[in-house]
Prior knowledge:
- Helix content is 37%, strand content 19%.
- By secondary structure, it is an alpha+beta fold.
Amino acid sequence: MGVRAAVSACGVIILAAAAPGRTQTPQEAVSRAMTGRAGAVVVAEAASGKLLAHHRLTVAGTRRASPGSAVKPFVLRALLESGRAAASSALPCPRKLELLGRRLDCTHPEAGFPLDPATALAYSCNAYFARMALRLEPAALARALEQAGLTAASGLVENEITGTLRPAATPEQLQLQALGEANIEVTPLGLLNAYRRLALARAKAPPVLTPLFEGLEAATVHGTAQLAQPAGLKVAGKTGTSAGGHAWFAGWAPAQAPEIVLVVFLEQGRGGPGAAPVARAILEAHARGARQVAVRAQGQTVTLPLETYVAAVLAGECATFPSEEALKAMAVAARSWAFRHRGRHRREGYDFCDTTHCQYLRLEDLAPRLRAAAEATEGEMLWYEGRPAAAFHHAHCGGTSEDAANVWPELRAPYLRSVADTFCTGSGRAPWSSQVLKSDLAKALGLGGPVILEIARRAPSGRVTEVRVAGSRWPETRFETAVGRALGWHVLKSNWYEIADAGDRYVFRGHGAGHGVGLCQAGAAERGRQGHTYRQILEFYFPGTALGLSARGFSWVRLAGERVEVWSTRPQQDGALVELADRALEEAERRAGFALSVRPRIRAYPTVAAFRDATGEPGSVAASTIGHAIRLQPHALLGDRLRSTLLHEMLHVVLEQRAHPTLPPWFREGLVKFLAEGADARLSALVQRHGRQAVMGWLESGLPR
């Protein structure tokens, strides 16, 4: 937990060591993980490239070695960007592979279906990449690997050397290069440079590169890099084992919003069982650190556990909330905002200040009920499209919240839109007024002459978005910040006001409190008092976000069929599912001998990781059905198994409609298999002995004694 902060009765912050132990720094984690191992480790900040930790940095900059499978992401990128491969480019894996007398057989689990690019990358399928590499010209592949940064100098160490790369002379050499076994050698710093570029490209990557990033994320879930995945932190990465016996892991975390990039290189070992656990130890230390924040409070910088920070925000922002549910809603919003905006004061050496510039907090008033609200929602955040939501909040919206784009034009967040909120106006619209001498205002705005002030533009809600200052148009946020810093934040309590010229001063009259974006604390408090749950409160103020412990915030689109509906985040790719599902339902009813009375719903998940997180099923399970809801793996991953999978799950839906509650799982699953493919030995024996009609009758009556 690191350092904890307490506040004495006189208001002085006291720093103390927190039990049960101090959190390891990244450097300590690296040193401990590499004890007794020969090799090198480099960990860098994704945004800046600044080194955060390292082991044998000189070796990292001067040791060349074959990268093995760690090069495959860059080969896949070359294939996808050149149009030589697409998300649907699936190939069966023969498992056996020999190139120039070298055995490079695949060791991944038997898939039973053709592998698409994402799955092939996750499984590190040598056969797939060897065959796909032949679609590239040798010079094109060499150029792509060079442009990836694999042979570029990082500038992080003196006397650094660069990797070597040359075009392949034969098709077999081309295949070996695509597997990282010939015509390419890299240094750990060179590989770090390339993976950092890839991590930075993730946020704005075109859709054509989706299989690349899905594969890197799936590799740590069910692929070769599973041992690199720590609890509570999603990682994207790739292992590599070269024929020379060198082991690699390279990747970043968090997977969808990279903060750190790391490379582990071992002189001897294998990537999966050797380098990946070293990476996990380092990433676990980062995850523990990610659950802490550095705060500038009362003139000192203190490090707080995240949940303590959340409780302190509740103390500062909404300690008087009468409802526990409203407190929990604010806890989720405060935590989500903190994750989204962490490092707001990075240049000053800390994450957040203790004023309303960030989130107002009070360390001295951590009442048990506030800690309880933080603990009750521990780790829960709002997500949107895989990222923590910008969960802004304010004291009082005055009856109408504001569209974020009207306050911060650069922020495009569909879940932060203007809505009418009648719950906060039961006791009025929070009117306020203030007045400022023109001479004081001139100083605050940095003007040498007289101040001529008027409103230039308003949002549809009525809030001020632009102010005309001495003939120049200022964004309201700039004007408000200048006034607040110089004259106090109480002068302009909100951005919804009128301006009146009163001779030697200006008079401001308005209502509401704060910027009006996101959660209205007055409205949330009243909603909680009237019995709304914290989930309902968050759904109202942040529509379209997903509440959860991990990145589940996908935008679902409903695709309606004749008798089924398909929910998809990629309607163009999943459109064909509608007709296939309708046919599967019709066939399931024919085989069962009766019709379904409800409308089945299929949720087609975009990635294996998303399916796994939502269902709790392992990545090897094709689908999961509860009631009349079917949760489906990415259909491109299922390939030829898609039709049989849909039929199997539809039979579950049809049969469960009439299933007797005492039926054991073996009978339910066995009957589905028997009707789908006649392949269940136990049910086949029962049908042969008692007849099909009798066995089907047990579905509704239960098994005979």
